[in-house]
Structures are given as structure tokens and as C-alpha cells.
Amino acid sequence: MKKLFFAAVALVAIAIAPNTYAQTKMVGGAAMYPTKNIVENAVNSKDHTTLVAAVKAAGLVETLEGTGPFTVFAPTNAAFDKLPAGTVSTLVKPENKATLTKILTYHVVAGRLSAADLMAKVKAGMGKAELTTVQGENLTVMQEGKKLYLVDAKGGKSWITIADVFQSNGVIHVINTVLMPN
């Protein structure tokens, strides 16, 4: 009877494990756990140290640790490196907190929008969809082949390089360019 019980437990563990691991993605060399919130995961990604520093400087940590749900388009360090020299160091200064907050909140949409949700919105919108960011301005989502990209208020384009990094309070889509509001 014990052998039968242990065999049943092993089968259940095998059946559950693939679902658990399938939802845990690697970003910046670190596992992103769906049971952790956006900030708890982001601090472990070596590709998002600039974003984490900016979120801290803007005072948005508590918000992004909240219940949400949020959809965050998370620029990598390489995305921030594309900005003109000195931009990031200037933005994280206390006197520029309002501007930094405006840029960072332009990367956040209320609700949990998976890549499939974004694709559905694009198809329903005849090739593009407008998302309202928590900053208040629109962000355009478009599709090329099977890939999604974003067009910001200034016409800049950013590709979603890693989609559907689910968090306890939302979802992150890693992007390769910082989005700019008006």
C-alpha cells in the first residue's frame, strides 16, 4: 500500500512540475517566479539594474510591490544605454524625480495583459492597438510576423524581446528600447 501511495505522489509531482517550471522564465540570468511580485523578481535580473535603480529613485517601489495587477514593459540596461550619454544619471537626481516618474509610469499599463491579450487587441484594432499607460498617454502596440512591438508618443519603436514573465501582481514584457512620452 505504501508503494502505491508513493507512486501516486510521484506521478502527481511529475504532472504538476512541468506547469510550475513552464511559468518560471529566466530574465537577466535569474529565474522570475510567478509567486513573487514585480520588484522582488526585477531586483534579481542582471539585465534590469538600471530600471530597478530608476524605480527606486522615482519612489515607485511600493507601488510596483502592490496588488496591481500591472503590465510592465521593462527596458533592459542595454535599452537605457541607447539614451544620450548622461541621460540616466541626470534623470535619477532628486530634482528630476517628476520627469523620471513620468517616463517610468509610461511603461506601465493597468491590468495583466499577456502577449496573447496584446495580439488579440492588435487583431481587433486592424493591425494596431492603443493602450493607455498609468502615466496617462497612449502607447501603440503593433505586430510584425509573430513579434510584438511598441511605438511611443515620439514615434520610437521598441520590440518585446521576452514576453509573458508572469508575476504575482501582473506581467512583465522585456523590451529593448526605453519608451518616451510627450
Architecture overview:
- Keywords: Signal.
- Residues 35-179 form the FAS1 domain.
- This is Fasciclin domain-containing protein.
- It comes from Mucilaginibacter ginkgonis.
- Residues 1-22 form the signal peptide.
- With 182 residues, the protein is of the alpha+beta class.
- The protein has a single domain (2-175), classed as FAS1 domain (Roll).
- Helix content is 39%, strand content 27%.
- It contains 8 helices and 9 strands.
- The protein has helices spanning 2-23, 38-42, 49-58, 61-65, 77-81, 87-91, 97-105, 115-124; strands at residues 25-27, 30-32, 70-75, 108-110, 128-132, 138-144, 147-151, 157-167, 170-175.
- A 7-stranded mixed beta sheet has the order 4-3-9-8-7-6-5.
- A hairpin with a 5-residue loop joins strand 7 (147-151) and strand 8 (157-167).
- Helix 3 (49-58) crosses helix 7 (97-105).
- The radius of gyration is 18 Å and the shape is globular.
- The protein starts with a helix and ends in a 7-residue tail after the last strand.
- The model is unreliable at 1-22 (pLDDT under 50).
- Average pLDDT score: 88
**Mind telling me the CATH superfamily name?**
FAS1 domain
Strand tally, please? 9
What order do the strands of the largest sheet run in, or round the barrel if closed? 4-3-9-8-7-6-5
CATH architecture: Roll
> What are the segments in which pLDDT stays under 50 over at least 5 consecutive residues?
1-22
Task: Give the overall shape.
Answer: globular
Radius of gyration: 18 Å
Quote the CATH topology: FAS1 domain
